[in-house]
């Protein structure tokens, strides 16, 4: 019996150790020649990238694209304003919404690392860049839901169902022609773990009401743990803009309302999208639903989509929410402006972008649908168009004060509709 217990302990330890072995390790595995685009290795094993130099991790390192962890340690010898680096990038060609990424951006007013999920560049998490200082990023994908960490500090859990692809994981590759990459960066460690590895940050705090995920085919909703069945439930749906105001909205609702977050969008003309929307809207007995679909539909130009096609797709979104949650009151949030790119570091945005006429068209046609469908409109275009200095400078996103404005508007409508008063309990 003692020998048996000893063998079981040895076997358990071996299984535990094997679970920690990465599927791909920069320190041990060679980079295929076709995936090395100018990256150079120093005597200590560090790889230098930057400029037009980058490398890739083979797609074979990701056998389970719903469950994997990537850890990479990178340092920057030089810090030049107006530069960025795609530390991780695993997606198809630009414009195809699959996979994930992580970008470091260094400018006078925006020093952040930014998650990229299914082609969506989601906000920016503050980062105090220091030269020649190693930073370890971890991206843990659990059941298709990615979470980001910097030096073990949680940066955000994103309840978007990660759409898989068969691309390599690129390190340092430019995504857009206009990007100005860091002159150089040093990658001292990079490991890819499979589904047997369960990353847990020692800096994560356990929540009294932890959040989880409810998912279906090509959709995932961030859901709170329901403790008080009497508490009202609301759903807010949108693209990365909703990820921006989420940071203000959830604390404002805590203790009073259960807020569910669906990060989603309809990028193409699809009058049959109502079936997917219906599935997500039916997961709880929502009293209120706030939704928007706009910036990912900037391809809806007059040349590519007729007014009737835009109207039909927008109406399908509304009908999907109505079918899935017939008891809920719906609110449509007008699409926020497309802004000009920041002209130079430190200078605020002072003009609308060249795609803003598409936003105006989407809003005009959507308002027509909302009027016919009896859906209340929350105008977030007008107040932000008047506050362009709050724009993030990347054409699409906004700073925290702008997201606070959107959150305040949703909170006000929630209080009014549910007759809520006073602070969170």
Notes on the protein architecture:
This protein is of the alpha+beta class and 425 residues long. The protein has two domains: 21-193, Jelly Rolls (Sandwich); 211-418, SGNH hydrolase (Rossmann fold), CATH 3.40.50.1110. The protein contains seven helices and 23 strands. The protein has helices at residues 2-19, 240-253, 274-281, 307-324, 356-373, 381-385, 400-418, and strands spanning 24-25, 36-37, 40-41, 47-49, 54-57, 68-75, 83-90, 100-106, 111-117, 120-121, 125-126, 135-142, 145-150, 153-157, 169-171, 185-193, 211-216, 219-224, 233-238, 258-263, 288-291, 329-333, 376-378. The strands form five sheets. Strands 1, 3, 4, 6, 12, 13, 14 and 16 form an eight-stranded antiparallel beta sheet that branches. The N and C termini lie far apart (56 Å).
Q: Helix and strand layout, with pairings?
A:
Elements: H1 2-19, E1 24-25, E2 36-37, E3 40-41, E4 47-49, E5 54-57, E6 68-75, E7 83-90, E8 100-106, E9 111-117, E10 120-121, E11 125-126, E12 135-142, E13 145-150, E14 153-157, E15 169-171, E16 185-193, E17 211-216, E18 219-224, E19 233-238, H2 240-253, E20 258-263, H3 274-281, E21 288-291, H4 307-324, E22 329-333, H5 356-373, E23 376-378, H6 381-385, H7 400-418
Parallel strand pairs: 19-20, 19-21, 21-22, 22-23
Antiparallel strand pairs: 1-16, 2-5, 3-4, 4-16, 5-15, 6-12, 6-16, 7-8, 8-9, 9-10, 9-11, 12-13, 13-14, 17-18
Helix pairs in contact: 2-7, 3-4, 4-5
Q: What share of the residues lie within helices? A: 10-25%
Can you tell me the CATH superfamily of the largest domain? SGNH hydrolase
**What is the subunit organization of this protein?**
single chain
Distance between the termini: 56 Å
Instruction: Give the total of domains.
Output: 2
- SS summary, helix count: 7
List how many beta strands DSSP finds. 23
Low-confidence stretches: 1-18
Whole-number mean pLDDT: 89
SSE run = HEEEEEEEEEEEEEEEEEEEHEHEHEHEHH
Radius of gyration from the CA trace? Answer: 23 Å
Supply the helix-strand structural class: alpha+beta
Taken as a percent bin, the fraction of beta residues is: 25-35%
Given the C-alpha coordinates, what overall shape results? Answer: globular
